[in-house]
Amino acid sequence: DSVFANIAQGPEDPILGVTVAYNKDTSPNKLNLGVGAYRTEEGKPLVLNVVRKAEKLLVNDQSRVKEYLPITGLADFNKCSAKLIFGADSPAIQENRVTTVQSLSGTGSLRVGAEFLAKHYHQRTIYIPRPTWGNHPKVFSIAGLAVEYYRYYEPNTRGLDFQGLLEDLKSAPAGAIVLLHACAHNPTGVDPTLEQWEQIRQLMRSQGLLPFFDSAYQGFASGSLDADAQPIRLFVADGGECFAAQSYAKNMGLYGERVGALSIVCKSADVASRVESQLKLVIRPMYSNPPIHGPSIVATILKDRDMYNEWTVELKAMADRIITMRQQLFDALTAKGTPGDWSHIIKQIGMFTFTGLNSEQVAFMTKEYHVYMTSDGRISMAGLSSRTVPHLADAIHAAVT
Ligand code: PMP
């Protein structure tokens, strides 16, 4: 008998499991709005032209070898990543108060940050928004942090519960870590305004709470890399500490290359350098050092003005297509006279719309219309096209009437 004979069947990941179910469906009308990956108007995955261009340069460069990177990753990539998120002229970078390490996309960056905090930070409690990306509680608790929630979403308005958020952060213990979605909150698509961010910053600084930003969608929310980084830059501008986990999965379409970075902004260069030495001790026993291909693509693009500009144009086109899909879905429901207020579809931003549909309605849409999405009613707008909007509108209409 196998030594694993009694092992229990594990549950499917709630987000990735949607695609597993979708793949089994044989209907020609099936629609996958579960996974958060960009699709073209034709429903195809997209490799950016500028990425193809960078890859050609890399492949043709005979001087490039496949040696291991340092534990902290590709130095050029780390430098460019810090500038991208904190701003090219960020005083914190100029004062060498920022340590940046390359990690395995957004998830790996969050995990390295979590492991570092569990080992070296005195307050091992992290507050995450309710709701949040389903992997957040697991990443932080498995690293040894206690996970608590702060109010974020108000179902009645399908907007931000700003008072609840402030109250919950006010009653958090001094020093607690607070996870903040930098922009395009997943799954709700609801972000604080800049004025609200400023209030959050003031409250957090006065309570001594430690900000940990998850930036998985820079450029994807508004189409502007700078605008989407504003909340983080507000926090860094006050001179205080700040964590930022960056992912290039969405904004450069590098999903499977697993390219990301963790930056820790410290109060002095001396502290930053000791923090980095400890990050290396966290990373070494996890995976020794990160992969080389993905960050080389990113560094090639970010270091070249023309390629950088080309990237921003392609990124804006992706963001604009998503915004167009929002409008088309809203218009389709309005034209059908579907009961209810659907204005949140055009108010929310980023990759997802939090439709407000409940799990029974979602199950109905999957069964009757072959529309796949997470059971919380989140749909990926990037998975929609002009061709499929009417089918989704039919499904929603039938689910709510
Ligand atoms: N944070 C959030 C909020 C996300 O939505 C995602 C991707 N779904 C990630 C982090 C991490 O993604 P990745 O590891 O692919 O960069």
Automatic annotation (TrEMBL):
Q: Which cofactor does it need?
A: pyridoxal 5'-phosphate
In terms of domain of life, where is this protein from? Eukaryota
Keywords on record: Aminotransferase, Pyridoxal phosphate, Transferase
Named from the GO MF annotations, one term is: pyridoxal phosphate binding
| Swiss-Prot/TrEMBL catalytic activity | L-aspartate + 2-oxoglutarate = oxaloacetate + L-glutamate
The extra comment attached to this record reads: In eukaryotes there are cytoplasmic, mitochondrial and chloroplastic isozymes.
The UniProt subunit note reads as follows:
Homodimer.
From the Swiss-Prot or TrEMBL record, give the protein name: Aspartate aminotransferase
Q: Which organism is it from?
A: Papaver atlanticum
